[in-house]
Amino acid sequence: MALKIKKVLVSQPKPATEKSPYFDIAEKFGVEIDFRPFFKVEPLTSKEFRQQKISILDHTAVVFTSRHAINHFFHLCEELRVAIPETMKYFCVTEAIAVYLQKYIVYRKRKIFFGQTGKVEDLAVVIGKHPKEKYLIPVSDIHKEDLISLLEAKKISYTKAVMYRTVSNDFEDNEKFDYDMLVFFSPSGISSLLKNFPNFEQKDIKIGCFGPTTAKAIKDAGLRLDMEAPTPEAPSITAALEMYLKKQQSEKG
Predict the structure, then answer these.
(1) Domain ranges of the chain
(2) Would residue 30 be called left, alpha or beta, if left means φ above 0 and alpha means ψ between -120 and 50 degrees?
């Protein structure tokens, strides 16, 4: 018998490479997978940023927790005609984010530090070894406070600077929304779904997600969670999706 799930919406940008497991899954199970983020990140204008009355050059170090933060920081500096001195230090939550700095600076000539585990606790330990710096933390209008709390506990001097915002990526009125399954990666995605479709009724639509905070947001919205990653059996969302479709296929027999 045919699979009940024919069309899946993955709320992320389309993978840049054809080697993505999503394409293998689509082919293997004969499902259609659409990629469409439910929200997008927009820069603050230089005028909006100036209203925060923050002087970037009053700081001796910048803390980056994402690539978005790096992009918006350097674009804003360019717009404000702020020349970042070579003495500026950079602290990143992971090595991958630190390496991304190469897009904007000569990496080997700068003082760059990063955490080993990808956890903010680890980054706070690294920052704690440089207590005399004045840190600037570029953030989105919606952000977690974990790192801020850790720095306050260590009595580190910092300024939080909102440099970009997360906005709902609205669906057009004539856009079809005929999916059998929706896959989410953050609570913002759930908020955006309910903003776009205030009368959304889940019925037979399956909902999958990655991460405990997203799972909580789905349940808090009164929706049913059908598939979750990471788990010991499914460390990634693609592994979870493949397992889910395989199970459904065997049930259909």
Answers:
(1) 44-166
(2) left
Q: What averages of pLDDT result for each successive group of 10 residues across the chain (253 residues)?
A: 81 89 95 92 94 98 95 97 96 93 88 90 96 97 89 96 90 86 92 90 95 93 96 94 92 68
Cβ atoms of residues 9 and 31 within 8 Å? no
Helix crossing, 187-196 with 212-220: angle to 10°?
Answer: 30
How far apart CA 62 and CA 158 sit, in angstroms, is 9
Q: What is the 3-state secondary structure (H, E, C) of the chain?
A: CCCCCCEEEECCCCCCCCCCHHHHHHHHHCCEEEECCCEEEEECCHHHHHCCCCCHHHCCEEEECCHHHHHHHHHHHHHCCCCCCCCCEEEECCHHHHHHHHHCCCHHHCEEEECCCCCHHHHHHHHHCCCCCEEEEEEECCCCCHHHHHHHHCCCEEEEEEEEEEEECCCCCCCCCCCCEEEECCHHHHHHHHHHCCCCCCCCCEEEEECHHHHHHHHHCCCCCCEEECCCCCCCHHHHHHHHHHHHHHHHC
pTM of the model: 0.70
Q: What fold characterizes domain 44-166? A: Rossmann fold (3.40.50)
Residue-wise pLDDT for 28-52, tens only, equals 999 999 999 988 889 999 999 999 9
